[in-house]
Design brief:
The protein contains 9 helices and 9 strands. The strands form 2 sheets. A 6-stranded parallel beta sheet has the order 3-2-1-7-8-9, with helices on both faces. The protein has a 3-stranded antiparallel beta sheet with strand order 5-4-6, covered by helices on one side. Helix 6 packs parallel to helix 9. Helix 7 links the parallel strand 2 and strand 3. 32% of the residues lie in helices and 18% in strands. The protein is of the alpha/beta class.
Length: 233
């Protein structure tokens, strides 16, 4: 039976693809006050601004391509039962070919009904923009399919289950400052190996193997480490 490899990714995973990060120097939060464009209160106060903000993020996303780090995680599926838990709202993991992706904070290329949370729609590259006037086929107003600040994270329980069941756990490109996502490594079973890939790693518990580099180089190193440890030719 193949080992279960669970990978938790953050903004640094997509930075090399040209996706703007939020917290880094020069990031989106320096341009846009976070509570204006990414909170439930902000959306209620100025939905037009929030629609425009995510329209711009989608235009950026469709021009981006998965990087070598994304593709490397797909390569790992040859040898491991691989799951990706991502804080990112982009679709680069899916476009790279990852089979099992769980989005914690929503998906940029999707919108949903404001009356029925289960009515979710995928946008296309030639139909990216929404406004306060956009309606679905039922006549419902729509909103970005994004987990705003001040909202619950619906997928955190499945993410905790995956982390708890991991034989190997990997964290890539995250400051470990965003909860509840940052708590996932604490659910990993005692003695299970944990790897952390980041060019500016945060403090981590003893026993975590830190690979201090960007996502693409870090995933390449991770592949070599895991192949050596697991005796994979």
């Amino acid at each position: 039976m193949r080992k279960k490899l669970v990978i938790s990714t953050g903004a640094g995973m997509s930075a090399e693809s040209g996706i703007s990060t939020f917290r880094d120097s020069g990031g989106l939060w320096e341009t846009y006050p976070v509570m204006d464009v990414a909170s439930a209160e902000g959306f209620a106060r100025n939905p037009e601004l929030v629609h425009r903000f995510y329209n711009e993020r989608r235009k950026e996303l469709v021009k981006a391509q998965p990087n070598a780090g994304h593709r490397g995680l797909v390569e790992l599926e040859q040898w491991f039962e691989t799951y990706v838990i991502t804080q990112n709202v982009d679709d680069l993991h899916e476009r790279a070919g990852s089979s099992n992706v769980l989005h914690l904070h929503g998906e940029l290329m999707k919108i949903r009904s404001m009356r029925r949370d289960d009515r979710i729609y995928t946008l296309t590259p030639d139909n990216l923009e929404t406004t306060t006037e956009t309606r679905d086929k039922y006549g419902d107003p729509v909103r970005p399919h994004i987990v705003f600040f001040q909202e619950a994270v619906p997928n955190i329980e499945p993410a905790i289950e995956l982390a708890s069941a991991a034989d190997i756990f990997v964290v890539i490109g995250t400051s470990l400052a965003v909860y509840p996502a940052a708590s996932l490594l604490h659910y990993v079973g005692s003695g299970k190996p944990i790897y952390y890939i980041d060019p500016n790693p945060a403090a981590v518990p003893a026993g975590v193997t830190v690979i201090k580099t960007g996502a693409s180089e870090g995933v390449a190193r991770l592949i070599e480490i895991l192949k050596q440890k697991e005796g994979i030719e």
